[in-house]
Amino acid sequence: MVGTCTALHLQARGWDVVLVDRRAPGQETSWGNAGLIQREAVEPYAFPRDFDTLADVLAGRGAQVHWHARGLWQMAGPLRRYYKNSHPTWHARASEAYSRLIAHASDEHEALITASGAHALVKRDGFRFVFRTPQAHAEAVRRAERLHDHFGVRHQAESADQLAQAEPALRMPLAGAVHWLDSWAVSHPGALVQRYADLLVARGARCLTGDARSLQAQGAGWSVQTTEGRVEAGQVVLALGPWADPFIRRWGYRFPLFVKRGYHQHYRCPARLRQPVLDAERGYVLAPMQQGLRLTTGAEFAPLDAAPTPVQLVKAEALARELLDLGEALPEPPWLGARPCTADMLPVMGPAPQHPGLWFNFGHAHQGFTLGPVAGRLLAEMLEGGRTWIDPAPYLPSRFV
Ligand SMILES: Cc1cc2nc3c(=O)[nH]c(=O)nc-3n(C[C@H](O)[C@H](O)[C@H](O)COP(=O)(O)OP(=O)(O)OC[C@H]3O[C@@H](n4cnc5c(N)ncnc54)[C@H](O)[C@@H]3O)c2cc1C
């Protein structure tokens, strides 16, 4: 999503663009996510700091978090910084910067959805957090009111009866919901990226297959090997999502990056869920998709390349069956992806500090699908060298050097 949108925004500013990927556009993390364009996600996901939650995580209780010892060991440095940055004072500061990006996400998607004729993939009637206990519901309503007052995020607080009317398929007595009114649901996230890439090609760009690891400095610019030969360019943008860290390390950059892996599985669900739902006290999402009902899991702290361990999927499936008649799982292996995260919860967007003509656009964590068009526009404006419509200072790669 991020690379394709960056290419579109550069093209719109007159650059001759080639999109190079080792697969077709939209086949990786941007394929398997929950498909939410999250206007409500103005606060980045903080590391839990209360003792009970941490104890649950460490003991492996619940479905929200799973970890591999090797993953914690490998990511220990960035995770320590992530924990520190999640202190309420620093988290509030990160939220100010994050919310400035999120505020434009729907408008920027809308422009590309219209231009690519992708309206049929997008539903604009919101997304629900549902709650099992009255205490958690009341707390969430207070938070939603604060997000409204501070960031202009619209919501509707729903009682148990209102929720039952809105989503009759939910069968467990629930305490209520927060319905985020301005968030959107995409019924096939990979197809939306493909539509954006088709638009790019229709407007004259090329999408080529190639490996970013073949990137070399060449003359005053860069070159990369593709199946159609070496492509040369004066400027290169790296939008490698979770693969950014291993890549930039080869160029000498040690940024506090890490991944939170996540799984999905589709179900033939005979019951019809009208909108996506987050089971907020249990930490998984159910989202209606073209393929079936998609269940996506929370965070797994494991090395990017470790074998899949879909423990959370098993736990989340059992919890989801309390809420809904999921039906059978589709006969496909669980999908595994990885959220590209940073220790300060802000994406990395801007020029590579030590390599002229090299640009970074990654680290969009839990909301890269939402933020792709905003990230693409901001990067294109920076690369053009004029004034940007959002101040890029909080996101610049130089903050880590
Ligand atoms: C379970 C789950 C649910 C999520 N739900 C949501 C959600 O509802 N809403 C939301 O906004 N976000 C969500 N996210 C986060 C979101 O999916 C990511 O932030 C986003 O997809 C990242 O986009 P990207 O373009 O940076 O990375 P990617 O989509 O992974 O793209 C990176 C690209 O780099 C290519 N690549 C990698 N290595 C090379 C190489 N060596 N050479 C050439 N090409 C290479 C890949 O093929 C890929 O196409 C979710 C994530 C997960 C895991």
Topology at a glance:
Layout: H1 2-12, E1 18-21, H2 29-32, E2 36-37, H3 51-59, E3 65-67, H4 69-74, H5 76-85, H6 88-102, H7 105-116, E4 122-123, E5 127-131, H8 134-151, E6 155-159, H9 160-166, E7 176-180, E8 184-186, H10 189-202, E9 206-209, E10 216-218, E11 221-226, E12 229-233, E13 236-238, H11 244-249, E14 257-267, E15 277-279, E16 284-289, E17 292-296, E18 299-301, H12 311-323, E19 335-342, E20 348-351, E21 358-362, H13 368-384
Parallel strand pairs: 1-9, 3-18, 5-15, 13-21
Antiparallel strand pairs: 2-8, 4-8, 5-7, 6-7, 10-11, 11-12, 14-17, 14-19, 15-16, 16-17, 20-21
The structure holds flavin-adenine dinucleotide.
CATH architecture of the largest domain: 3-Layer(bba) Sandwich
Low-confidence stretches: none
Our count of helices gives: 13
The shape is globular
Strand order of the largest sheet: 6-7-5-15-16-17-14-19
CATH class value of the largest domain? Alpha Beta
Structural domains: how many: 3
The percent range for strand residues is: 15-25%
Keywords:
single chain; 401 residues; alpha+beta; FAD/NAD(P)-binding domain; D-Amino Acid Oxidase, Chain A, domain 2; 3 domains; eight-stranded mixed β-sheet; three-stranded antiparallel β-sheet; 13 helices; 21 strands; binds flavin-adenine dinucleotide
Report on the architecture of this protein:
This protein has 401 residues and is of the alpha+beta class. It folds into three domains: 1-46 and 86-122 and 188-256 and 349-401, 3-Layer(bba) Sandwich (FAD/NAD(P)-binding domain), CATH 3.50.50.60; 61-68 and 259-342, D-Amino Acid Oxidase, subunit A, domain 2 (D-Amino Acid Oxidase, Chain A, domain 2, 2-Layer Sandwich), CATH 3.30.9; 127-181, no CATH class. It is 35% helix and 24% strand. Strands 6-7-5-15-16-17-14-19 form an eight-stranded mixed sheet, with helices on both faces. α1 (2-12) packs parallel to α13 (368-384), α7 crosses α10 and α7 packs across α13. The mean pLDDT is 97. It binds flavin-adenine dinucleotide (FAD). Flavin-adenine dinucleotide is lined by residues 1-3, 21-23, 27-30, 33-36, 38, 211-213, 239-243, 262, 264, 296, 337, 339-340, 362, 364-370.
